[in-house]
Structure formats: C-alpha cells, structure tokens
Amino acid sequence: MAVAEDVEAVLAAKFAVMRRVLDERQWRVYLGAEARALGHGGIAAVARASGASETTVAAGAAEAGDEDELAALAPGRARRPGAGRKKAEDAQPGLAEALRDLAEEATRGDPMSEITWCSLSLRDLQRRMAAGGFGCGKDVIARMLRGDGYSLQAMAKVLEGRQHPGRDRQFRHISAMIRAFRKAGHPVVSVDTKKKEQLGPYRRDGRAWRPEGDPVKVRDHDFPDQELGKITPYGVYDIAANRGFVSVGTSHDTGAFAVSALRLWWQQEGSLRYPGATRLLVTCDAGGSNGYRCRQWKDQLAGLAAETGLKISVVHFPPGTSPARRSGTGSSTGCSATSPAPGTPAR
Predict the structure, then answer these.
(1) Helix H or strand E encompassing 91
(2) How many C-beta atoms surround the C-beta of residue 252 within 10 A?
C-alpha cells in the first residue's frame, strides 16, 4: 500500500525542522523510525520526503528496531568504529612517507624549535604527489603537514647586516635626546618620505563601501601618465602628541620639498601645539631628501630656523634601520640649525 501524498507533505515539513537539530546518527535513526511507523512503502516515502537515500533510511530502520545496535555506539559517536571513508594515507600506502620526503627538501625552520614550515605551496605539492602516482587534494596535504608539525609561515625581515660596535650606545643617545626634549616641553618629530603614487584612475589597495555591483572603475594597466605625473607624500609624526601630518606635492623628493613639509606642519599644527617652544628635534633616515649628506636639506633647515626662531636639531638613524625599530635605538649623525641673531646672515 502506497503512502498518500498528503502524508509525505506532512513528513517533509517535519523533516525540514528536525534536520537542523539532529546529528548524523540521530537523523538516520529518526528517519528509520518514521519509515517503520508507516509500514509497507515507508522507506521509499521517507526517502522522497527527506531527500535522503533509501539505503540511509533502511539502515536507520534496522538500527531503530535493534536495541543492541542502538547501544553498540559509544555516546557522541555517529558511526561504528571503522565506518566511513578511509583517510587518503590509509587508502594509499606510502602516501604519507612520499609527502614527508617531498616536503623535507623544502623544509625551513630553526632545528631547536618545534615549528617548521615548507616553502612549497599546497598546489605544488599536489602536482608533485600526482606525478608520483598519489591522488590527494590540497586539504588532505594541509592536514598531513599540520600533523607533521608544519605551519603556514610568511617571510620575516629580521636579519640585519653588519653592526657598528657603538650601535646600542648611539641608539641610547637618541633616546636620551628625545626624552630631554619632551621633558622640556619642546616638540620632537619623525619625518620620512612615503611611497609615491601615480595620479589618475589607478587601482589602490583597500576597499570602500559602495552600492553592490558598482565598484570604482580604474585603468586595467598602471602605465605612468606623463601629464598627471606622481604625487610625493611627506610625513611628519609628532611623537609626544601621537599625531601624524602628511604634506602631498607633485614636485620631486628634494631637500627643499622635505623642509617645506616641515614648515607646513609647524605653521598649521606645531606652533599652535607648542606656543612656547624654542627648540625642535627632528629624527629621520640617513638618506634621501633628508639625508645627512644632503646640503639642500641643511640649507633649507637653516632658513626655517631663521623664519621661526627655533633651534632645530637633527638626528639621523643609520642606513638600513627599519622604522619599526626606531623607538628604542638609533644612530646619531646630526646637524643643527639655529636662528641667527638680528643682523647676522643665516648659516
């Protein structure tokens, strides 16, 4: 006797709710219990209403009618031990060893550390495993690598070149100067030229909120625009106030441009934030527009000192010093610019 269509519709509504709250085993037994309650034709009807296969429903019906079977599984298990698809390394003898040997050639890491990493990508490993006669996906390879103690690692810029014997003393000297200026209420700024950017509709990193399907349209290639040119941002960071100031220009990154950005900062922020200041400390790189060999930088600083009445001191960090490492250490090649006395030409 066939099960009526209206009964199947009721079952489908029940199954749509119960599937969300039952695990694999509970779902299987529940389907089987419903099929047993319907009698002849129940398995096929439940399979149609739930979308499960008749094999699954039949297995659930057999399990629901066997008390020993219901008690055979440990709490929390959905399948008997050994059920389900075998792991790739179990189904393919030698796969784990082949992957381990392949990864060993590209293994990196400290031998004293428990964490190592592989320089080959998952796709590269998958292709090489396939060439060796083993079929496995990227997820399987990633799982096996993690099991062997590997982890995803990016390159870290931590290796440094030769260091001067007095490097730490030089860094401590700069730190002491910064503390002395701040304690006296004088401004301390860190200056640097930022990455140049092309003007025009070019792609930029990052995302912005816009209506769906309406992205900002930009050029498909980043060829330079000779008419628009590039912009050069120059940053001035007020250490005490923890506030940044960026001056953007279309000229080249010269000493005059660098001092012009510093002048704008003093006019728009510095002079208002430090009205009683008589000195200014500038920390910067040893090269570029604000380098210690740049005569124009020193000449323009002397002019700025004459305009503002400030005694400007400059300390340079050594070549190759990362901006992230400047807070505690540095090197002090420096110059100073002082406003001249009335009637005295600027230096």
Answers:
(1) helix 88-91
(2) 11
Kindly tell me the sign of the dihedral angle through the C-alpha atoms of 55, 60, 66, 72. positive
- Using alpha carbons only, what angle is made at residue 137 by residues 103 and 77, rounded to the nearest 5 degrees? 110
- Residue at 242: amino acid letter: N
Residues, the chain, total? 347
In tens, the pLDDT along 274-328 reads 999 999 999 998 888 999 899 999 999 999 999 999 999 999 887 666 544 444 3
Tell me how far apart the alpha carbons of residues 150 and 144 are, in angstroms, rounded to a whole number: 9
Residue spans per domain, the chain: 5-72, 88-147, 167-204+218-338
Which residue reads 């002082």 in tokens?
Answer: 338
Cβ atoms of 336 and 314 within 8 Å: the answer is yes
- pTM exceeds cut of 0.70: no
| Strand segments (E) across 254-343 | 279-284, 311-316, 333-338
Q: Where are the beta strands (DSSP E) in the chain?
A: 107-108, 117-118, 188-193, 197-198, 230-238, 243-249, 279-284, 311-316, 333-338
Cα–Cα dist 163/333, whole Å: 15
Q: Which CATH class is domain 167-204+218-338?
A: alpha beta
Sequence-separated contacts (24+) of 290-297 with Cβ below 8 Å: 290/191, 290/192, 290/193, 290/255, 290/258, 290/314, 291/316, 292/316, 292/333, 292/334, 292/335, 294/255, 295/255, 296/254, 296/255, 296/256, 297/255, 297/258, 297/259
Q: Which residue has the tokens 């396939």?
A: 130
Strand partners, 249: 232
Give the model confidence (pLDDT) of 235-283 as tens digits. 999 999 999 999 998 888 899 999 999 999 999 999 999 999 999 999 9
